[in-house]
Amino acid sequence: MELHRLQNVKLSDVTINDPFWNHYINLVETVILPFQWELINDRVEGAEKSYCMHNFRIACGDEKGEHLGTVFQDTDVAKWLEAVAYTLAKKPNKKLEALADGAIDLISRAQCPDGYLDTYFIITKQKRWSDLYEGHELYTAGHMIEAAVAYYEATGKRRFLDTVCRLADCIYRTFGREEGKIHGYPGHPEIELALIRLYRVTQEKRYLSLADYFIRERGKSPSYFLNEECRKTGNYIFPEFADFGLDYMMAQKPLQEQTTVEGHAVRAAYLLSGMADVAYEERDDTLLKQCDALWNNITQKKMYITGSIGSASYGERFTGNYDLPNNTNYSESCATVGLAQFSNRMFQITHSGKYMDTVEQALYNTLLAGIALDGKHFFYVNPLEVIPEVAEHNPTMRHIKTMRQQWFGVACCPPNIARTLASLSNYIYAYDEEALYVNLFIQSCVKVPVKGGNLRFCLHADYPNSGHIEIQSDSTAEAPFSLAVRKPAYSAKYQVCVNGSKVDCTQRDGYLFIKRMWKREDLVSIDFDVQFRFVYCNPHCSDNIGKTALMKGPVVYCLEEADNGSHLAGIYADTEAPVHSAFVKGLPEESGSATFSGCRTVMPQKDNPLYGLEKPTYEACTLTAVPYALWNNRGKGEMRVWMNDGSPMFHRNWRG
Amino acid sequence: MELHRLQNVKLSDVTINDPFWNHYINLVETVILPFQWELINDRVEGAEKSYCMHNFRIACGDEKGEHLGTVFQDTDVAKWLEAVAYTLAKKPNKKLEALADGAIDLISRAQCPDGYLDTYFIITKQKRWSDLYEGHELYTAGHMIEAAVAYYEATGKRRFLDTVCRLADCIYRTFGREEGKIHGYPGHPEIELALIRLYRVTQEKRYLSLADYFIRERGKSPSYFLNEECRKTGNYIFPEFADFGLDYMMAQKPLQEQTTVEGHAVRAAYLLSGMADVAYEERDDTLLKQCDALWNNITQKKMYITGSIGSASYGERFTGNYDLPNNTNYSESCATVGLAQFSNRMFQITHSGKYMDTVEQALYNTLLAGIALDGKHFFYVNPLEVIPEVAEHNPTMRHIKTMRQQWFGVACCPPNIARTLASLSNYIYAYDEEALYVNLFIQSCVKVPVKGGNLRFCLHADYPNSGHIEIQSDSTAEAPFSLAVRKPAYSAKYQVCVNGSKVDCTQRDGYLFIKRMWKREDLVSIDFDVQFRFVYCNPHCSDNIGKTALMKGPVVYCLEEADNGSHLAGIYADTEAPVHSAFVKGLPEESGSATFSGCRTVMPQKDNPLYGLEKPTYEACTLTAVPYALWNNRGKGEMRVWMNDGSPMFHRNWRG
Q: For chain A, percent helix, then strand, then coil, each to nearest 5?
């Protein structure tokens, strides 16, 4: 098979100037990263201690003390460094870079002579690699490697990269098919995709072969996990997870034989990302097809309309096909990041737009829902339906927070959101010799290298408030080159003009190819259909039967108590009446809210009987919906994505 | 206040001959009690070990070994003995009595010289009364006392009664307001109601005063629980429950100040039963009103239509008002037994029919759902909606079993169901000097003591298949005496005839009083309205918005996959079309099934998109519903009580 992978445009070659997205992106540099630095140094009053830097100071002998925090506490600084790297790649920031260099110094000095690096095992002297099931050593190593590669690419400094090469070499000497090596693999994947990143930057084949080993060894019988040392000694990192089962980490059988994604959603997404990377590097068509099959299982059977995954809180995990409860789900922000990474990889390998449709859905909805407009409050868990009075009194929903939280003890999500926002242009653009792929319609200018120089384009849009996209050339090409603009699946209709004239252009795999000898000020304008639309869920999913969700472009809307009063469960949307754009108080103007008509169940007196013969009655009402990503920015209240579909009541009988 | 409590008719004075109920009642003597005896003696191959009798043998020195099983393992034999007692009270059974005497001998010999009796604390030598929060000593003592009182009443044998009097005296010397005594009270109530039973049979005032103390001390500030010994030593029985909070056991403030029931449903129901007992014995009108207020909170805000309670699995507990999820609830069989006990006490004290309406609902639905038709399989947890494919793959529902189980490690529910069935006539009849109260329309003959002799009546019914009830006098009265027949709240219409002639009779608090000088063969016939009816839930409960449940008399119906195919979530009931009686294969004829019309969502191809613009379509269908109590007697499959109400689609627009 002839596969060639699209490349990311260098972060420094993209300037994002979209008011909506820039609000969030700027928060990373101005609020999130400085705040997280204070956090990992335990200097935030009132916040739970992180102990992250504390552990490194002890591991490298600067201080005496015990390891504190969880076993994978090191990853907090790794993800912080990765986000710092992306920020520095875009523009210099001496202060951040100095902080990062200091952290890297500490990390490098904590490393053992043989390259091993994990403060938990170094400090506690617990036996290395004795609990791959839950010990998270390879997961932690993976995040270190990702950070170091990003930092090297941003700054050109080699110290951190050299450190993680020694770490990767240590792992390479320890794990593998060869006799004398451990035949294990990680309970929590991440090392696989990290090794590929390291391979791509160093060109050291052993990192690829180690990633290959981890992917292909996984799930072989007899299971390594069932016979590893902690099972014999009883010395588990997390005894309470010891019986989660092999499917919890997709290790119940070889990945090639699995037909559904299972277990912990973040683990699965990271694993599949690494699997796609290996499939590409080895040009293994069969493995790539399997990645696609599992991606389809996620997106067509197990993904919320908001682009989130993980239907169950217990185990933060996938459940059965079509099981998508709206008020008890986990839908972790980190899992959405993982899904976006996996999908982006699949797009870059296959050049197919369906993957970026999912990325767009994930970023515009769950990723942004994870962060408050103030940049200081975060959701880890992203339900599609919240009634605070219920959620706060029912421990089945104890993972559901009715307000975004400042930070958490296990602080995975905020830095994961930060590193995604800081590297957002990797999702907007990709390129090869022949084309620049434009995936997301986020206002920005891009410089793309072509034979004999660079081409520059600027994208103008007020998307998805408007479906009108303009891309202007800011340079002159010396050879024909294509703009490949993603045609979102939701937009059946579209129109493309170049310099004011309608053109027919090739459509391939979800992309519109506009090929020409670009001249300065050439203007491509495209109109997609971003009318409000009511969407329905496949009735195999019992939770959404008789319900509808409002969307506009990739944006999923929700009802909030702030606009509609309480008892949202009793609201019926008239899906055949027009939906109008609207502005609501307390949200940014560009956020794009909506009004439409419907009816609501008349609420009886508080003391009416719990059960009775009286049928409910309804009253007409006007409803207001806001983008799901922006919910809970105006105080605590009810929220609901899937509304009762009132159309059979309003307009038609059941015979349709 | 002039309160007088109605009395139970002696178990030996009621003969139940109802084919439907006798099936279950007979199972107690022929299947459940013999099987449980084998179980508590660890002689059932393949079953989890109980260790219950093992512990007693060790505690009394017959064997050497350790305590095994949970801290309240002793209650299994207590509940078994209580059920045996009720069985013996009805008719002799030498074999069962001999087994019981043997167990009682062992129990009595295990008792400490000072009266203390709890094999866990005796064997482990863990400090007595050091963890009232979760130690369950007073709970265990309560069950022993209940069993002993029942056994004394059934057999006249005093040995067990004397044993528990020494136990109660030991507790009396240990707990109380007086200086030098422990000022604590149980985390798991049960001792309160047990002490009242002991007081009533022994007339020893100290047992009443001890029950009074436990009820009134509860929740005082500063909390005893927060300062008890286990909190200081860290030596908890169940460390994982240590932070469940005081409201988990309704000890967050004095009972008089609580406005809602909270926490563990069984604890709450047992506590309220004891509170009602104390209120009656002390003629404390205020305390009784508080019992009624809390009973109202349960039945009007927190009770499932099937008469079950406990909306959350985590903590097996109550949640907020109107929070009644149908597929993640706990609804423990034991909690329904507790609710029936509490309600029956409130009825006996106030003579008000509303309490027995709830008892009827609880017994006909959740209690019977707890036991399979074969008497060998049990549900602990009673959801109102099950999709096996979903429940078996979503750990949020890991407490939900898709088939009844043979027995469990903590075997609370089967013996609790057994003791309720064995003493069922206590729910059917009650009496005072002036009237025999007829609460449940279960075929039976009763002998009721009146001044100067006994009166005998026989009740004939095929209820609720038919609402026609006949009560025939089988004796001649020497003074006027009333039959007080409960008029179920659901039956707005009714007609009473005596000897064929319509009579007007006094209606008071839900009872029809038929007062006369009874002659042999006097025949009262009453017709209640037991037409099928579609019931609606108060829309404050978001889970049942737009839904309806089918009932007939107290019986709640459900759809099962066996009759209707899968995807029950997509079914819409036509609530305005007639409902017909029907028979279904595989269930007893007298169970009374129903058919009615509706429509179902047409299921798309398996591979259709998860989300799309296509509206669902429907097709007409005939639906079959069976009594909820009988679900899951025909193999694994979907079940659903609350169906989508199709009437707005079928017949009317939303303006009603």
A: 40, 20, 40
Q: Is A389 helix (H, G, I), strand (E, B) or coil?
A: helix
A180 pLDDT above the threshold of 90: yes
Question: 3-state DSSP call for residue A522?
Answer: coil
Q: Which long-range contacts (CB under 8 A, 24 or more apart) does A221-226 make?
A: A221/A253, A223/A251, A223/A252, A224/A132, A224/A183, A224/A184, A224/A185, A225/A132, A225/A133, A225/A184, A225/A187, A225/A249, A225/A251
Q: Is the distance from CB of A54 to CB of A68 less than 8 angstroms?
A: yes
b/e map of A92-122 (b: 16 or more CB within 10 Å)? eeeebbebbeebbebbbebbeeebbbbbbbb
For residue B68, give both structure tokens: 């095994």
Q: What is the pLDDT of residues A139-161, one digit of tens each?
A: 999 999 999 999 999 999 999 99
Test the A interface: residue of B357, B611, B613 with most A CBs within 10 Å: B611
A253 and A245 Cβ atoms separated by less than 8 Å:
no
Q: Give the model's confidence band at B655: pLDDT under 50 very low, under 70 low, under 90 confident, else very high.
A: low
- Characterize the bridge pairing of strands B506-508 and B547-552: unpaired
Indicate if the pLDDT at residue B312 is higher than 50.
Answer: yes
Domain extents in chain A: 11-428, 432-528, 532-651
Whether residue B618 and residue A654 make contact (CB cut-off 8 A), yes or no, is yes
Residue A545 is nearest to which of B315, B540, B570, comparing CB atoms?
A: B570
Kindly report the nearest CA distance between residue A301 and chain B, in angstroms: 6
A639 beta partners = A386, A560
Cβ <8 Å between B612 and A536: yes
Contact B11, B29 (CB under 8 A): no
> What are A565's two structure tokens?
């009063």
Q: Which residues of B touch A537 (CB under 8 A)?
A: 610-611
Bond from prior residue into B648 cis (ω within 30 degrees of 0)? no
**DSSP states of B75-98 as a string?**
HHHHHHHHHHHHHHHHS--HHHHH
The three-class DSSP label of residue B535 is: strand
What lies within 8 Å, CB to CB, of A323 at 6+ separation is A302, A311, A541, A543, B389, B390, B393, B394
Please state the three-class secondary structure of A130-149 as a single string.
Answer: CCCCCCCHHHHHHHHHHHHH
Q: Which two tokens stand for residue A243?
A: 């019986």
Other Cβ atoms closer than 10 A to B346: 25
Closest by Cα among A116, A113, A151, A120 to A56: A120
- Give, in degrees to the nearest 5, the angle at Cα B398 between B317 and A252: 155
CATH architecture, domain defined by B11-428: Alpha/alpha barrel (1.50)
Establish whether this prediction's ipTM goes over 0.90: yes
- Judged by phi (left if over 0) then psi (alpha if -120 to 50, else beta), residue B134 lies in alpha
Token look-up 């995709």 returns: A193
In which band, very low, low, confident or very high, does the pLDDT at A412 lie, cut at 50, 70 and 90? Answer: confident
Q: Decide: B429 and B448 in contact? Cβ < 8 Å.
A: yes
The four Cα atoms A374, A377, A380, A386 give a dihedral, to 10 degrees, of -80
What pTM, to 2 d.p., does this model score? 0.95
Q: Which two tokens stand for residue B244?
A: 């469940």
Distance from CA of A208 to the nearest CA of B (A): 35
Residues A331-341 pLDDT 10s = 999 999 999 99
- The candidate with the shortest Cα–Cα distance to A171, out of A132, A202, A200, A203, is A132
Report the half-sphere exposure of A424 (CA within 13 A, side-chain side). 26
- Catalytic residue list contains B316: yes
The backbone region for B282, taken as left when phi is positive above 0, alpha when psi lies in -120 to 50, beta otherwise, is alpha
**What is the CATH class of A432-528?**
mainly beta
**Which among B394, B375, B397, B275 is positioned nearest to B331, based on CA atoms?**
B397
